[in-house]
Amino acid sequence: MTHPTPIRGEHLPTALSLAAAGVPALPLRAGKKTFGNCRRCTNSTCGGRPNMKTPGPCTCPKPCHGWAAATTDPDILTSPAWAQAWDEAAAVAYHPGGAGLTVVDLDNAEAIAWARETLPATRTVSTTRGEHWLYQGTMPSRNGVRPDVDIKSSMQYARWLGPGTGTLAALPDVVRALIVKAPAPVRPAAAAVPAGGGTCPHRTPAFLARGIAMAEQRITEAASAVHATVFATFLAVLATHGRCGCMTEAHTARLFTAAQAKGESPRHCADAWANARTRLGM
Questions:
Q1: Bridge partners, 33 (sequence order)
Q2: β-pair partners for 91
Q3: What is d(CA 118, CA 145) in angstroms, rounded to the nearest whole number?
Q4: What is the DSSP secondary-structure string of the chain?
């Protein structure tokens, strides 16, 4: 099958339409590549490095380094400095974080099956190899959070493939938690017998006490992504300590208190706890 040769500026109307809707857009070359750095932006010094705490939009005279070049300004999109980029563009991309969105990029059927079993239903967009699941809300981007699953939100771009289908859902804790590494459980060598008989999975009473203390510390020391850290910590605590019956309401209250001290509401704590139990099949 042959495809017609793209006309000059074929993708510019799409970019302008996105910009009018508040979605920062930029041109893509063939192969989903962004346009190369100009000298002024060598090594992305004008805002593209992931370790920059307050990255700014590109101020160079043409789109030069990926997501930071995305804009909603029609005067920039139609400026002569951008004309060659649009002439050469093979597609349009957008900055999800700039539009208040997070994209869960699912690259194959297995990843899609995992999402359908694990994630809340939301708006989906078909891609060449899989699907994009869109959520309302932003978070840090990260590739490879699971096999064939990437997160595209802040400081990242995604190819525009249409508005998709379905109702846009709020960004859930289970997606935020994908970028948070759970703490490794402590494994004491000794074993203890609980009052009710049998072998306690915690092995010693100190194991549970230390686990709760470590969880409190992890929440307290969270400098960012507090929602995701709270959920991931609850998940880790329940996975290690939640099935033998040794945890009490006092232990749960300590974790909730630590989370609320970081600004979480009592309802969010209860929801995150319930979601963690559900994910573990408890």
A1: 29
A2: 28
A3: 14
A4: ---PPPPTTTTHHHHHHHHHTT--EEEEBTTTBPPPPPGGGGGGTTTT-TT-SS-----SSS--SGGGG-B--HHHHTSHHHHHHHHH-SEEEE-TGGGTEEEEEE-SHHHHHHHHHHSPP-EEEE-SSSEEEEEES--B-EEEEETTEEEEBBB--EE-----BSPPEEPPHHHHGGGSPPPPPP--S-----TTSS--TTSSHHHHHHHHHHHHHHHHT--S-HHHHHHHHHHHHHHHHSSSS---HHHHHHHHHHHHHTT--HHHHHHHHHHHHHHTT-
The two tokens of residue 29 are 């070359």
Helices 205-220 and 249-261 cross at an angle (nearest 10°) of 20
Of 127, 95, 91, the C-alpha closest to 109 is: 127
Q: Which two tokens stand for residue 76?
A: 């920039």
Is residue 269 a contact partner of residue 277, using CB atoms and an 8 Å limit? no
CA–CA separation, 201 and 86 (whole Å): 62
Supply the DSSP string of 224-265, one letter for each residue: S-HHHHHHHHHHHHHHHHSSSS---HHHHHHHHHHHHHTT--
Reply yes or no on whether the pLDDT at 30 is more than 70: yes
Pairing of strands 25-28, 91-94: antiparallel
Query: Whole-model pTM?
Result: 0.62
What pLDDT, in 10s, does the model give residues 170-206?
999 899 888 876 554 444 433 333 444 444 555 566 7
